[in-house]
Every structure is written in C-alpha cells, then in structure tokens.
Amino acid sequence: MIPEFCVFYGVLTFSWIEFLWEQYLTLRQRRVYKTTDKIPERLTGVLDVETFIKAKSYGIDKNSFSIAEEWFHMIISTGFICLNGFTLLWNFSKYCLIETRYYDSEIMTSCVFLLCMNTLGTLMSLPISAYSTFIIEEKHGFNKQTLNFFVKDKIKNFLLVQVISLPITAAAITIVKWGGRYFFIWLWVFAVVTSLFIMTIYPEFIAPLFDKYTPLPDGVLKTKIEELAKQVKFPLYKIYIVEGSKRSAHSNAYFYGFFNNKRIVLYDTLLKDSKDIMNNKTIIDENAQGDKIEEKGKGMNDEEILAVLGHELGHWKLNHILFYLIISQVNLFVMLFVFGWLYDHSMLYRAFGFYESAHPVIIGLAIIFQYVFSPYNTVISFAMTTLSRQLEFQADAFAKKLGYAKPLESGLIRLHNDNLGFPVYDSLFSAWHHTHPQLLERLEAISKTD
C-alpha cells in the first residue's frame, strides 16, 4: 500500500508544483505587460505607439485568459486523478459493450475508452476554444471565423482524430500482446513508420480538409523563390498559398515534404496584395529594398518574404529538421523502453484506483506517459526549447549570409507588428516558454558583424 501511496501523491504533488511554477512565470510576464510603457529604443520609428498599445492590450488579455485556462485544466486534472477517472471510464467502456460479443475484447474496450476520453476532452475544450476565438481574437481583430465555420472545423477535427487514433490504438495493443518481452522495439518501429506516414500524407490529404491550398501563380515572387531554392540547392517541387485568412489574420510560412518533393507554403495573410497575386495580377512593389516598413497595411514585400524563406531554408540546409527527427525518435524509444519495463507493475495501476488483475495496455500507456513521465517530459521540454532558440539564431545567420540581413530585420519586425507581438518579455518566462528568441534578441544577433 505504501508504494501506491507514494506514487499517487508523488504524481499529484509534482503536477501542482509544475502548475504553480507556470503560474509564477505567467504572473512575471503579466507584470512586464503592466509596467512597460515605452517602446524599446531599437524599435523606435518602426513600431508606432498605436500598435504598441494594441500589442500590450492583446498580451494582457491572453495572459489573463492563460491564467484562467490553466486553473481550469488543473482542477479538472486533479479531480480526474482523485476520483479514479481511468477506472470509471474503463468500467463505462466495458458497460457499453456488455450486450455485444466484444465485451471481453481488450482492443474494442480500449477503442471505446479512447473515444470517451477524446469526446470528454473535446467537450471541455470547446468553451475555452470558443472564448479564445470569438472573444479574445475577435476583440483584437484576428478572428475571421464564423460560428458555422468554427463548428464544422471542430467536427471535422474530432472525426479525423478518431479515424486516425482508433486504428493506431488497436494496432499498438496487438503489438504489445504479440511482441513478447521486447515488444517495445516493435512498438517503436510501428510508431516511427506511422509518424512518417502521417507526416507524408498530412499536407496532401489532411490539411486541405481544413484550408484551401492554391499554387502560387507565375510572377516575380514565384521566380524569386525558385531562384532562392536553386541557390541553396533546395529540391523545390511546388509553391502554395494557403487561404488562412478565413480562419485568422495571423501569418506564417513553412515547407514540407521528403526527398525531392518539397513544397513551400505561404499564408495569404503573409503577402501584400494577396488577392491580386491570387488573381494573377502584376504587382509593382515600390518598397522592394526590404529595409523600410512604414506602410500601414499588413503583409510583407517580396524581399522580406524571401528573407523569411531564407531563414526556413536555413533549417533545412543546416539539417535542423533531421536533427529534430532523430532526437524525437530516440526520445520515443527511451520512453517505450521504460514503458516496457513498468507496463506490468500492478502498483502503478493500483495507485490510480485500477485494481483489475488484467492490465489494459491503454491504461498503462495513459498512466505512464501522462503521469509517471511528467518530470522527465518537463526536463526534456525545457531542453528542447533551449535548443530550438539556438537553432533559430543559426537559421537567421544563414539568411544573413544569403544577403537578406536588412529585409530579414524588417520582415521580423513587420511580422511581429502584424501579429501584435509585444516586444518585451520577462527573461525567465521567455526562456521557459519561447522556442524562438525574442524579437530584440534576434535583431541584435542579425545586426552584429560577422
């Protein structure tokens, strides 16, 4: 009984320590929002007072919402642990199958269990997501969704999650039962293959279910992007514009694909005169130098877009993507190895009120990955955040070597202003949460001579 007691209260204590630490950091950043009244000297002339005030208001509103959201999740999580939520849901899942021939099937019971978990998670997240979208994002001019669009989006997302997760769960349970003592090796191979498969099909078949992807029309911008890709020997296949403006006014750019079939995706909100570009009209950009950002309108000029893409291609050229992939798969192997060692320990199940003699795989996965690994996950997350910040500096330096120092600076500032990013952050909050360095840090690093 003592070991179960220690595990239960150990998990509960750590979850509250981590939660209170997060709250402390959030309050530190809140103080920064409240007390910062002057535009940083480095941004004088490129960040107007009106945008600064709007960014401050947006930051405070998101900060307040974050505090409330974290308290909500923490109370729900604590209640779930204390009320033996896993046991209650597992018994309910078995009850749902009591009149069927699948009553004794662990795989079918696990699928019902996962469906219940996903349904509860979706229902609890709906009011939070709706408030964030239609209150906070709407207030600050970012939300472009209608209620109908929002509901359809949530339904499609929920159905897609079930279509993907339920077969994967059934396969994982089968592998654990079939794999013997070293099942974790086979489970890891399955996880790697599955993740790579999903990464391959997601952009082509899944993402278009939610947003419209259109090939970038022929023109000056497309030619410049193709020349940039050729310069760094990036095997560019296609360039797309994603119609993200129906969802949000926030902007972004990224690339995806394996081997020689790589695509670049630009959000339409990233582009100046995106409607004209989509309609294949000729655009004359009088600010092509990339070192001016006085225009009030949102979006980047061609040189700034190329600078941002130079940064993204830097991640590819410097093998950051491959590095992340290797780290994630090694980490997954370590976690599955430990899971294989702990999976059949009755003490872990009893600690969370699960006293059945049989140990369902999905319950073991939930307990070990969600709770037992919690301290490990926190350490790994911070380490990866720290690493990510360093790799971002390297990608900026790569874009600078391509000759895009000035347009990269102006592009980052423009992107920051368009998204109402606040220019000042508490150092501890930023180090813990931000995978990208602060704007001022990036500008300072770019401006340094080689």
From TrEMBL:
<feature type="transmembrane region" description="Helical">
    <location>
        <begin position="6"/>
        <end position="25"/>
    </location>
</feature>
<feature type="domain" description="Peptidase M48">
    <location>
        <begin position="216"/>
        <end position="449"/>
    </location>
</feature>
<feature type="transmembrane region" description="Helical">
    <location>
        <begin position="112"/>
        <end position="136"/>
    </location>
</feature>
<feature type="binding site">
    <location>
        <position position="315"/>
    </location>
    <ligand>
        <name>Zn(2+)</name>
    </ligand>
</feature>
<dbReference type="Pfam" id="PF16491">
    <property type="entry name" value="Peptidase_M48_N"/>
</dbReference>
<dbReference type="GO" id="GO:0046872">
    <property type="term" value="F:metal ion binding"/>
</dbReference>
<dbReference type="GO" id="GO:0071586">
    <property type="term" value="P:CAAX-box protein processing"/>
</dbReference>
<feature type="transmembrane region" description="Helical">
    <location>
        <begin position="71"/>
        <end position="92"/>
    </location>
</feature>
<dbReference type="GO" id="GO:0005789">
    <property type="term" value="C:endoplasmic reticulum membrane"/>
</dbReference>
<comment type="function">
    <text>Proteolytically removes the C-terminal three residues of farnesylated proteins.</text>
</comment>
<dbReference type="InterPro" id="IPR027057">
    <property type="entry name" value="CAXX_Prtase_1"/>
</dbReference>
<dbReference type="Pfam" id="PF01435">
    <property type="entry name" value="Peptidase_M48"/>
</dbReference>
<keyword id="KW-0479">Metal-binding</keyword>
<feature type="transmembrane region" description="Helical">
    <location>
        <begin position="362"/>
        <end position="384"/>
    </location>
</feature>
<keyword id="KW-0645">Protease</keyword>
<feature type="transmembrane region" description="Helical">
    <location>
        <begin position="321"/>
        <end position="342"/>
    </location>
</feature>
<feature type="binding site">
    <location>
        <position position="392"/>
    </location>
    <ligand>
        <name>Zn(2+)</name>
    </ligand>
</feature>
<dbReference type="InterPro" id="IPR001915">
    <property type="entry name" value="Peptidase_M48"/>
</dbReference>
<keyword id="KW-1133">Transmembrane helix</keyword>
<keyword id="KW-0256">Endoplasmic reticulum</keyword>
<feature type="transmembrane region" description="Helical">
    <location>
        <begin position="157"/>
        <end position="176"/>
    </location>
</feature>
<keyword id="KW-0472">Membrane</keyword>
<protein>
    <recommendedName>
        <fullName>CAAX prenyl protease</fullName>
        <ecNumber>3.4.24.84</ecNumber>
    </recommendedName>
</protein>
<keyword id="KW-0482">Metalloprotease</keyword>
<feature type="transmembrane region" description="Helical">
    <location>
        <begin position="182"/>
        <end position="202"/>
    </location>
</feature>
<feature type="active site" description="Proton donor">
    <location>
        <position position="396"/>
    </location>
</feature>
<feature type="binding site">
    <location>
        <position position="311"/>
    </location>
    <ligand>
        <name>Zn(2+)</name>
    </ligand>
</feature>
<dbReference type="GO" id="GO:0004222">
    <property type="term" value="F:metalloendopeptidase activity"/>
</dbReference>
<comment type="similarity">
    <text>Belongs to the peptidase M48A family.</text>
</comment>
<keyword id="KW-0812">Transmembrane</keyword>
<feature type="active site">
    <location>
        <position position="312"/>
    </location>
</feature>
<keyword id="KW-0862">Zinc</keyword>
<keyword id="KW-0378">Hydrolase</keyword>
<dbReference type="InterPro" id="IPR032456">
    <property type="entry name" value="Peptidase_M48_N"/>
</dbReference>
<feature type="domain" description="CAAX prenyl protease 1 N-terminal">
    <location>
        <begin position="29"/>
        <end position="212"/>
    </location>
</feature>
